[in-house]
Each structure stands twice: as structure tokens, then as C-alpha cells.
Amino acid sequence: MTFQPPTILDIDRSLRDDFRRRVKDFGISVDATDPVLAVLFRTFAQQIETVYADTGRMRQSLLDELMAGLQLSQRLAHPAQTVVRFTSRSHRAKVLRAGTELNAKASTGERLTFGLDATIQVSAARIALALAYQDQQLQLLPGVETAESLQPYRPSIDPVKVNLGVQPALLIAIENLPPTLLRRHALFFELGPGSFLLREALRKEPWWIFNEDGTLDGTGLMRPRRANSGVYELGWQLEADWTAKSERELPEIPDGFYSGRQFIFPDMSEDRRLLCQVPKFLDGALAKICGRDMSNFLSTPRVWIKIPLPPGIPALRNAVNGIMLHAMTASNVFCRNQTVQFERDGRSIPVGHNSVGVREMLVAPLSVSSLANEPYEAGLRPRRDASVGWYELHNDRLTLHPGIDPNGQAQTAANVRLWLTNGSLGNRVGPGDITGFAHSATFDDISVSHVTAAAGGTNGDDYPSTQRRFAEALLSRGRIVTRADLEASTLSFDRRILAVEVRSQIERQPEGLRRMERLWVTLDEDGFTEPEVELPVLQQGLESYLKQRLIQGILLEVRFEWSGGTAP
């Protein structure tokens, strides 16, 4: 329940009502309050309001300390996020690193800096066409610009009847590719109102790339994985080291306003044989859309992408307003470096600054280390070595606890790198207000188009939102204790899991008696594109997910069956 302290007027009115009620108990009726008593009531009301305000601040401080003790993220500022699109005039692909700075100007005149949320590659590649398949109808997405090579065929945007299966899907063809194909290329989906289910599906469903035969196999299966700021990186599902490659040591930036709409393709090359002329089931359907023979258009090898979607999503032709290649989210985040001399600056420094009248607030500590580049540890983590320095954040201040050098002397300084933001001021950057790169000479052959307004920037959570986030964090700790926990965790893992039956028993193992949890999982057969490829991946992922949350020492076995009762 949200705590709302009474105002001075509420307290003053309550004091007057209490006074009249008490006097009336003695048989005295008072129509007007004595002026002296009125001043006295107002003075008391002001003092009581101050006590209430202190109580509110105390509640926030206690909540901050409780969240810190549970190692939950603190009430830090959130950066504003926007979308920019790049156009390359070079024949060679060019890499833009994460954090590449862009110049921006707020509507009130302040100069701000935005940085790319992930590393991308920009090339001359372009979207040839994008199709939506739903309710056994296939049509071009009207919000996606088609390639010039398709224009002479005068394609229709009206849907055509075709049977490509039960699942809705998005189909995207990309042409004019470099030798590295779609390596680190960025794809942004511009979604309309009421498209929450579609956004969730894009970040959870498998993505496929057709092979050179126009069919689907395991080599073209990708899965999205969240990166910083709500950007999702696609990874090859069959690569065992994909998870290790995706893990980063950098601190996490919370999801931005455009989270779940930005995707980045994994490393790839022509050796993977992912170029095909047309998927086997599409040539006839495309001929219906254009009303003529498409053999010349379909003779060019392209990368064809299929994104299967769950039933019940909104109409794709209305939900997808656009799909942009080489578009990338950028957040109002920048780095500040400082060497803290303990004797001169002290051990506790403020993390916020005011630069040229523009307020700067902390997003996350990027790194804290000694002058010898030995990293400091966060104060909430258990420290194995007492000689290692550590730091803690509290009340908008960074407190440093120096480590001990090999010679036994306490360290005298530390290097601090902080990620800062301008908070809600970044929301005043409208479309077109990002003018280009901060170091334009490096990218003179790449132009920048500012697509969307910046949004989502805050100066820190208020108490109600922090309380709600704290409750959500406690409810999602992910530990499986009861049978209900095990069933709920299994059902929430994948939308294609329809039901689960848990059978518990004690079995004799070489090391003694052990508890075994056997899960009989019922799957939706229509939810799979290539079951022989996806089922082993689903089983491996589900077992790994559950074992990480089960109590140590409990064995687990997962078995699948289709909704009709047959075995896969």
C-alpha cells in the first residue's frame, strides 16, 4: 500500500475538528476558532508535517538498505533511449562499437550525449521484402519499404490465400549482403499500439534462417538473448559456447523504452551456406502476390529469415508499422573517469555532478580499481581476500575502502569510472535532434537519421515504484521448493508447454538414496517448426533452467509427450 503523508492543511483541519469535538463534550458550541488558537493549530500542523516528512524519508532509507542487503539493484537513474538509423556510402561493412557517442540537443537547448547500446555492423545490405503470414493468408507488410528490384513487378498489398501451416510468422528477405552476411547487423521493429504480445513473441520465439536448399535445419536456428538496455542478441542455438560468449562483465543497464524491439544477428559468413534464392514453399505464393512470374527476381540469392509466432497475436499487418535494418537504439549514457586521491578527496565522493548547469546522475559503476589496475569488489559480495579493496553505494555517494598493497601499505588512490545520465532531461530530445557522431571524422562515410523521440529517462525511482520493484524481485527469486513451484516454473519456461505432471520418488543411486523428480511435459505439436531440431534444444534448456533452481541434491528427469498423448 502506498504511503501518503498528510499535508499541512489536512493536519490543521484535523486539529480544528478535534478541538470542536472535545469542547462539545463539555456542552460548549464553538462556531469560529479563536485567532490565537488558529495560529497555534497552524504551528502544530507545520511541526507534525515535518515529522511525517522525516518518517517518509526514513521509510525510503530503510527500503534502500533492505534492497542493498538482498543484493537487489538500487534506486538509480534510468537513461532515456531513442532509435537512430545509419546509412553507409561505402562498399565495405563498417563496425560501430557499443558506446559510440552521438551529439544530441534537447528542446530546451542543452547539449547531451547518447551512446549506442551495442556493437553493430553497417553495410549496404537492405531489406528486399517483408511478409506476414496469418490465418492462412500471406501478404506484404505495408509499413516496410520494398527493394527497387521488386517494384517493376507491382506487388499487391492484398493478402492471398495460401496454406503454410498453423503458426503465424514473419518472413524477411535481405539482399545486397557483404561477405560476412548479416554479422552484427541490427534489425529494429516499429510496433503499433496493442502489440505487447507480438513484442514478447519476438524476444522469446526461435528465429530461423533458411539454408541454401530453401529448407530449415539446425544450422539456421537462432534464439534471442537479452543484452544491455533491453537489446536482444541472436545466437546460434547449436553452438555450445554461445552462452559464454554472450556473458559480459560490464554492469547491466536496465531495459530502455524500446526494449524488446531491437535485435542483433550473430557472427556468420558465407561458409554457413545461408544464402538461398527462395524458400521452397514461397515461390508460388509470391507469384500470386505479384500476379506474374517471379523467376528473375527470385534468381538472386538472399538471406531469408522466418520468425514463427504463437496463435492469438494481433493482426500483423496492423501491429508491425515498420522493420528497419541498420537501426540501433542509443541511450543517454556516458562515462566519467576520475582518480580519487584519498588524502585529498576523502574516501566518500558524490556520484552526481552538475556540468555546465546540466545535472548528471549515476546509472551504474563501470569499474573501480587501484592504481595498479586491481579491481575493487562490490561491498555486497563476499570477499575472499581481505587485502582487496571494495566499494559501496549509499545515499548518492560512493564510499571506497582501500585495499592493501603487497608491501603491506594501504592504497592511497583509486581509479573510478562511472556510467552517468542526464535522466529525465534526455526525454526532451525529439525526432531529428540527434545531429551526428561526436567524432564525425571517423565516420565520414556513414550518415545518421534520428528516427524516434527519446523516452524512458528518470532521475531515480520514487518510493512507490521502488516498493513495487522490491516486491517483484522477492517474488521472482526463482528458487524451487514445493511441487507447485516446480510445476509453475516448468509452465512458464516456454509457451509450447501445455501441462506438466510431477512424479516424485526415492531411488537408489551409487552414492546412496536420492530423491528423483520426473516431469512428464505435454507439448503443443503445432507450436514447433522443426520438432526433431527444437525438441533436444528445449529439453536441454528446460533441464538446465530447473536444475539451477532446485534444492541441491535432487535429481531431475524430463520426458516429453504431444498433446494427443503420443511420444515425440
**Distance N to C terminus:** 48 Å
Estimate the mean pLDDT confidence.
85
In percent, how helical is the residue content? 10-25%
Work out the helix count. Answer: 10
Overall number of structural domains: 4
- Major sheet: size, sense and barrel closure? 11 strands, mixed
Number of strands: 30
- Ranges with pLDDT <50 over ≥5 residues? 241-249
Strand content: 25-35%
Global Rg: 30 Å
Sheet/helix structural class: alpha+beta
Q: Largest sheet, order of strands side by side?
A: 8-7-6-9-15-11-12-13-14-10-16
Inertia-based shape = globular
Characterise this structure:
With 568 residues, this protein is of the alpha+beta class. It folds into 4 domains: 8-69, no CATH class; 124-324, no CATH class; 334-421, no CATH class; 483-562, ANL, C-terminal domain (GMP Synthetase, Chain A, domain 3, 2-Layer Sandwich). It has helices at 8-25, 35-69, 196-204, 242-246, 283-290, 316-319, 342-345, 463-475, 483-493, 531-547, and strands at 81-88, 94-96, 101-105, 111-116, 120-122, 126-134, 137-140, 160-161, 169-175, 186-191, 207-209, 221-226, 232-236, 262-264, 303-308, 320-325, 327-331, 334-341, 348-350, 353-355, 358-370, 377-378, 390-394, 397-401, 413-421, 434-437, 446-450, 497-509, 512-523, 555-562. The radius of gyration is 30 Å and the shape is globular.
